[in-house]
Amino acid sequence: MRDKVSILKALYFSATFSLISGAMPVYAVQGHGGAEGLVSHQIGHILFISGMGYLLYRVYSFRITDPGWFEFKSFLWLIILWNFLTFFGHWMHEIVNPARFISQENQVTAFIVTDSFDAFFYLTLLDHILLVPSFIFLLLALQKWRRVQ
Amino acid sequence: MTISWMPVVYIDIFGSALTVCIALLCAHASWQWSKQKTDDIFRQYIFLLTMAIVCFAISRSFGHLIKQILLLNDMPEIWKQISPFSGAINTATFIIIFAFGIYFHRVQRVHTEIEEYRKNLESLVLKRTEQLEETNTALHNEIAERVQAEKKLKQSHITLENVLDSSNPLCITSVDFEIIKANKAYMEIWPKTSTIEGQNIKCYESRPGALCHTDDCPLQQVINGKEKITVESVKQNTQKGANTFIISARPFRDAGGNLIGVVESFQNISARIKAENAKAELIDELQEALDKVNLLGGMLPICASCKKIRDDKGYWNQIETYIRDHSEAEFSHGICPDCAQKLYPEFYNKVDKIISDRKK
Predict the structure, then answer these.
(1) pTM, whole model, 2 decimals?
(2) Which residues of chain B are under the pLDDT cut of 70?
């Protein structure tokens, strides 16, 4: 058990270090620009994923089958997926070709999809498709716990 | 392929609004759940984790909503100024959520241990409660029995007191010669059974007598092993002086059969002795009188000629001698007129003439 935790810790710190060391100043744009920067936000996502991943791992380790825990695990899975999706979304947003955006009167009206990268990028912008269900599962889990207790 | 941008905008707006609503419901449900059991560490942990996630969801959703509103209203510059703050708050919530996430294991472990302790404690409390209830029931029964026994004991005590007080003078004396218990009849004769301070006094101080400090003392005899003693003794009494008593004594033992004293009852026989003495005196007197009656009673063989009487030994005695010996009568000898005339006629006639003349 301790070995697994050590491996997870090593992976987490390696990922964080590589992201920080490999981050370029140009990544700090639009949504998370300014003093905050994209890097810190991405680190935040990694921490979010790590925290929820660890929590999910522990929930599975405990083999809890009581009512509500399936919903809680579903929430964790979806929020982790959402984190990955948005993580890639933020990253892709910086490197996507601005020509793909069709604007009218300073407002984007359409997006040109030429390859899978563009398609995936477009998909990352619909992150609420994962976020809303994840919160629904969290609500269900809490309601079940409340009812059971 | 060109795809409309509207789905992105609509999903972002409606998704954000929906996320805010669900997040608020989550916060409410979590708060309600944690409030049900405020001492449950795991609930508090889930509540705080949920609140962190809710903060993230609300901050992010509001950020997205403001972004969409500003962009739709052609105000991207304002959004550029706001977005760092919105993003920073978002990132901060990520870190908080991460912190909560990595503490899940410890909280869960502590919670599990606490639950185990609680279960053990509850089990122990239940067990102890059952034991206490059993003890309590037993105690109740014991108390009821004791109350019943106490009533019986009280009744027995009263009965014993009544019996004691209705009997002859009676007292219990310890092997240390101290009076432990005395009944009313005893105290009427010997009122002093304890000191003013309430300490028991010695039996020989209460009822001094001839047997005190001797081997004939009933208590001493009981100590020496006798089981039943009946003695007669004169006991001193300050009010009535010396009286004679028949003292009956028996050993007084505790529940273990150990000798702890003597039970003595006193029967005053002074009046009886007095009556007996009077009776003996009367009998003596009567006997004496009877003896006297017997002296002159019965058939007396008497000589028809000389009037001598034959005694028990066969001797013939003069009648006056016999009567003198067998009665308190004494004889003085004289002569009657007939015998004088017969025996001494001249002398008799002369005397008779003188007497007749004097009468004339």
Answers:
(1) 0.54
(2) 238, 292-297
Alpha carbons B16 and B10: distance in angstroms, whole number: 10
State whether A50 and B2 contact (CB < 8 Å).
no
Q: What ipTM goes with this model?
A: 0.76
CB contact under 8 A, B26 and A135: yes
Domain residues for the domain of B60 are 6-102
Complete DSSP assignment for B204-262: HHHS-BTTTTSTT-HHHHHHTT-S-EEEEEEEEETTTEEEEEEEEEEEEE-TT--EEEE
B7: closest chain A residue by CA: A126
Same domain? B251 vs B313: no
Number of domains in chain B: 3
**How far is it, in rounded angstroms, from Cα B240 to Cα B253?**
33
Average pLDDT, chain B: 86
Of the candidates B75, B102, B129, which is a domain's last residue? B102
Query: Each residue of B266-275: pLDDT tens digit?
Result: 888 888 888 9
User: Domain spans of chain A?
Assistant: 2-148
Domain termination site, one of B83, B102, B121: B102
Residue A65 sits at the chain B interface (C-beta within 8 Å): no
Task: Please report whether residue B133 resides in a domain.
Answer: no
**Which chain B residue is nearest to residue A40, measuring alpha carbons?**
B91
